[in-house]
Fold each of these.
Amino acid sequence: MNVTLRVWRQANGRAKGKMAIYRVNDISEDMSFLEMLDVLNERLTLQGDDPIAFDSDCREGICGMCGLVINGVAHGPQQTTTCQLHMRSFSDGDVIDVEPWRADPFPVIKDLVVDRSAFDRIIQAGGYISAPTGTAPDAHATPVPKRDADRAFDAATCISCGACVAACPNGSAMLFTAAKITHLGLLPQGQPERYSRVVGMVAQHDAEGFGGCTNIGECTAVCPKAIPFETISRLNRDLISALTHGGSHWPRAAPKGETEVDEED
Amino acid sequence: MASKPPDVHVTNSELLDSLDADSFYVEGADIADTKAPKVPIDRRWEERRFRARLVNPANRRKLSVIIVGTGLAGSSAAATLGEAGYNVTCFCYQDSPRRAHSIAAQGGINAAKNYRNDGDSVYRLFYDTVKGGDFRARESNVYRLAEVSVEIIDQCVAQGVPFAREYGGLLDNRSFGGVQVSRTFYARGQTGQQLLIGAYQALERQIAAGTVEMNTRHEMLELIVVDGRARGVVIRDMVTGAIETHFADAVVLATGGYSNVFFLSTNAMGCNVTATWRAYRKGAYFANPCFTQIHPTCIPVSGDYQSKLTLMSESLRNDGRIWVPKSGEDKRDPREIPEQDRDYYLERLYPSFGNLVPRDIASRAAKNVCDEGRGVGPGGLGVYLDFAAAIARLGRPTVEARYGNLFQIYAQITGDDPYQTPMRIYPAVHYTMGGLWVDYDLASSIPGLYVTGEANFSDHGANRLGASALMQGLADGYFVLPNTISDYLADGPFPQVDQSHPAVTEAVEAVRARINTLLSVNGSRTVDSFHRELGRLIWDYCGMERSEEGLRKALTRIRELKKEYWSDVRVLGTNEELNQALERAGRVADFFELGELMCIDALVRRESCGGHFRVESQTPDGEALRNDAEFAYVSAWEFGGDDRRPILHKEPLVYEYVEMKQRSYK
């Protein structure tokens, strides 16, 4: 098949970017989208043109390194990572727009490569359980109800790709932040830091320049791991509890009366 | 360290026509001592921890450690050493430490918890690992790995790793290839990601606490050895191209394996050998480079453009049945082939282990049936992995709960629905047991250079059992290295390294010179086209089957291709920018050199063991035939110099606890 690409080219973070047009002929529909870009880059190199920079690593949908806005949609037409998108999702003759994640906290480094280190800093602000090596009790000391474990796992599947931010009209990273709050907040091991965690992470989220959540839901529509929207409600409940009960940065147990009012799944 | 024998000055070009394998290398002194305490095996680790010198907490902040790589082995070490109070500087080539390739491990992590009451124990995990490694792993290290495995699960649960649980709230286990107990802990099909997130979060906590300085998008290009000690690294900032030097009292390489020498492998695109290879060239021994693991259950190759292969966790073999049509002529839809016309060849050949035989055996069996012309799918390079019986027995919801995300990956890539039609699978390179040689302390042959995880060679012998890579990475990083490195650091802090020290300027100049050469060749072929050709050579001649003739052919061709590379590669752009072709070019240059050493190692080891199958050494029924009398040793290679022969040091392997016998999974 043959396609035409309109690709965002930008030499570096300070340069002005523009869309450039490339014809890519004779490609197989079994290629992944990134393999199609590999083929284009091989051809560009042989022509003496600078290949297009884009991030990818595992190419099996788990490392979260890849991420392109394809025809205006983060990760393209399938709800998956860009590396798992195949050319069979397109038709011969298509014109395809390829852009980087667009959000102020994700500055462009080159072409389609952006800097997502803001996510690491949100994790630094509380996205962990303090368990120094060697201090752990036996793994069976605290049983975890299967339902909680499964739901914590669902949230923990987040791969930090940033599609939620790219899709959000507000440039909010609430789904990413809420996934971590939910993962750790549903487990007994995560309780001691539950409220300091949410306060710290949300403060960092805002300090990085991500926008607020206004319940639009674009994030879940593109999330390759289908992180549930309700994680954001959970984050908000924890945040309100932490703030109204004066919880700021010292660890505390769940405020009285704030029992697990779990939404049915 | 062994002294070099006198005759190391024969250039490789003189050797090209030689027919004698011995002319490819020279032999150095044996490695006599691996520093394991000389007490009964179940007391060695305790003894070592007791004898290792400690560093007073107040002095730790004066001591610095560089850690390269942030997969399970690197993140866990960085978090633990940072927590202990050392000054840690960490590097990774990805944009976040959480993306290291440990994240892609699917199946699980072994631990001798015996939660199933099915006869498991530390001793049995030790025994299984030594046997599974085909008696080419070191007993002391493996025993310690089995001991520490128990603590890993506790640690991970405390960090919030959401392992699979049963309705009673306790942890679930499953069995894995090559063993008969259920000791594998798992988190659906993404155990690697969950364990790595646990280690990554612990690491980020230390970054916030200021004990670890993290540098993402930074790649190590050279090791700096000053006065016989590893004291630093030369790093390229992949965004600006700046060539930086960093110094410390010790350096830890946790940079993973080298499967990408094959071009097509299940490794991530960026995985490479450069860090360990550069250390090898500076004097660290490289052990058993030819011990690579071909994983039996991967999605078959679909075309020339393919950039990588995708693994399907071998946990699928718990419930999936592997078969091919009895006749190569049978081209019916697999669902229409009746039972009597199917050959469940693993169940037929290995009745007691069936579909759960170790990886090397399952892979070669698949190759054999395809070589017989009975393979399925495009090019005949595939076998069926069929879940129809499991779905009938367990119901679709159970199968979905166990393997749902794997089925999804498969459907996404192939466009087929594995709930309806059998998967097609074929072996692919997945893991490298070889790596930098380390002693019991995980110290390399360069003082102050430590190596953890897949980057070292230590624990899996000639074949790794499923769910043991995650175990080893975390054992090394959380529990082993932090206890042994203090013994070395107790002599520090070492004198500050001067920027103008000849060892520093030499290393920096070497990096600049390589980069400049790669950018100035401006030839006619891309980096990938060379890499693909190299990979094909290694796959054909140093893959599932190796022969004297094939390896010689490969060595000749690799050397020719390497020359062509340096005179005909095309890398555009400059150093002073994000330049992904330049990054790849440097990595591929090192893969050429590694590929050569792999073939020499495979040539010298004239026996079959584990993943290393030499056609000249097999039993009458085609099984691997070990030669313990001549080859019960670790091959530790010392760099001899450019165009000089490498030097082989043998570390004899002694089995005091597990009786050496030919593996049988029949």
Amino acid sequence: MDHQPAPTKPSRVYYFGTCLVDLFFPDAGMAGIDLLQSQGLTVVFPQGQSCCGQPAYNSGYRAEALKVARAQLDLFPGEDPIVVPSGSCAGMMRKHWPDLFRGEPDEAKAVQVAARVWELTQFLVHVLDVHLTDRGEPLRVTWHASCHAQREMGVVEEPKALLRQLANVELVELKREKECCGFGGTFAVRHPEISAAMVGDKLADIEGTEAARVVSGDCGCLLNITGALEAGGKPVRGQHIAQFLKERIHGA
Amino acid sequence: MAHEPTDFAAASRAALADPQLRGNFRRAMDGLTGKRAAQFPDPAEWHGVRALAASVRLRALAKLPELLEKLEENCTRNGITVHWAATTDEANAIALDILHRVDARLVVKGKSMVTEEMHLNAVLEKNGIEVLESDLGEYIVQLDGTMPSHIIMPAIHLNTKQIAHLFKRRIKDAESREDAAYLTDLARRVLRAKFEAADVGMSGVNAAVAETGTLCLIENEGNGRMCTTVPPVHIAFMGLEKVVEKLEDVPPVISLLPRSATGQPITTYVNMISGPRKAGEKDGPREVHLVILDNGRSSIYADPELRDTLRCIRCGACMNHCPVYTQVGGHAYEAPYPGPIGKILVPQIEGLDKRGALPHACTMCNACVEICPVKIPIVEIMGRLRVEAVKPGGAVKDAGAKASRTEAMVWSGWAAMNASPTAYRIATAAMGKLGNAAPSSLPLLKDWTSVRSKPRFAARTLHDLARAKGIPDA
């Protein structure tokens, strides 16, 4: 991707938690903050934040998306990086905000904010160059790559590199790692049968690895995958990578 | 198809209920994506050839009106008669005129998606003209009375066993043998006789070279060469976007197309057609016609964002990599162009009233964008069409056809909630307290919980946890 490598490790970062994390996975959100703090950073969580605007943007309601994105713009003054525990929301901000604000009076500000957005694992690897010490029990896991993390943020190897740093964790990759899990935002309810078929294939792939846990960096995918695992009575657990890493380094 | 589904949702449900069909697609697409990947082991080479092919297409589109005039001029000079068709009806009428003039009874066809777009076979049959598809896959779907399910591999939805049963049923003296070599040989014998007897051969065009008036046609079976050289009259059909400027623009296209499509380094046949038989030549048709079809393409061309749709070289790689197409197959789209390219092209040609559902049959995973050899921003165009579908007065045919007052109100409410920190705090607190009591029978939740457990709202939001932990707000 076209991220400029951060010249020096910053002392302060903003955290954009995302609405799905806020509502459904707040512990994963806190774990992301913890990981950043454990690297000596001051983490700022602007309480005025809500959503990046992606749901409306992808549904054809650009004015509504703009209104919501605009409400986030003033929460991140200055130059500090903005870290997001989601490849999809980070992709919306980094890649689509410049398009969304094109021709608007606050376009320059949106472009400035967008250029400072990092997906969490990307930030941990490329900017903080973290070295993790595993304090957990031996465990086999697999990695689910979100489509937008891979294809909008260019995050492919970073999360797997972090998982491989963990001495007691065995990472078994999926056969079809690049294939969508079938979430797709409103797609899951507009085309529930197709979405179900897609997540069915994803579950089969996950089970094929015989991993105890499927780790991902995006809560949309996790809602879909863990929901299907649960409904299907499968023993595999799903977890956000922030929470997983936090547990491993603290030995929880 | 056993019945005629009326929309994508219904047609895809029917496809999902067919385990044989799903198995056929899953296996075929897994194989094709693997074969394609093997063709591009070096990312630097891939980025290079892709940039080159994209630039060829972009340059052609940038000069499209000029190149089309030049193409007509040079084709005419080469003895090819050029016809312009604004609509599919006009294109069919042009074809019929030629066929009637030469009193054609039998037509053999090479693969042409534009003629699928025209429903030409049905028109010819209605006019008492026998038409035979000679591409093996097209021949199979014609025998089966269905449509191609893929633009490159029309019969990819069928396996050898199903094809053996079909041949046994439809071809005289066919043995019941599930053997690809036998079945191919059987089809070849049927086709060979027809090539010799045909009055007219028809084909598509992969690229038409403006500066030389050459029609380039690539294929694997030699049927394209037979159709374009054996019968006394050859009619080629192309969408107006298929023009390229120079002869040297052809290699990047015909190199990337098969590598992307079927994972072949090159097709078995590359035909460069530059006119009818000349005096003293021993073979070739007496007449060559080129029918250039618009059918909505000039409207697509007029919009700078939508114009990228016309870059397409019809390799079908986007289908092979589409997780939705992989599940439901090509027939569910009920269109000549299925999969990602179909989801953006067909609504623009046929209008959002009829086809407004297609741009939503997509998770926006971007797998197609990642492998498109000419870098079409398929998902961006998909997003644009979603806007056009609910917004009257746009550039696309039937813009606003899917506008819904209820949906607009929901999004307006959603925006009001998410644009005000106070409203957001109140709403998320309410969801945390009451959301989990929502019954699974609620409309959208019912769809979600068909195969998933109900999403559980956390008791405290991240906002609450961060505040409680003293995480600074600014």
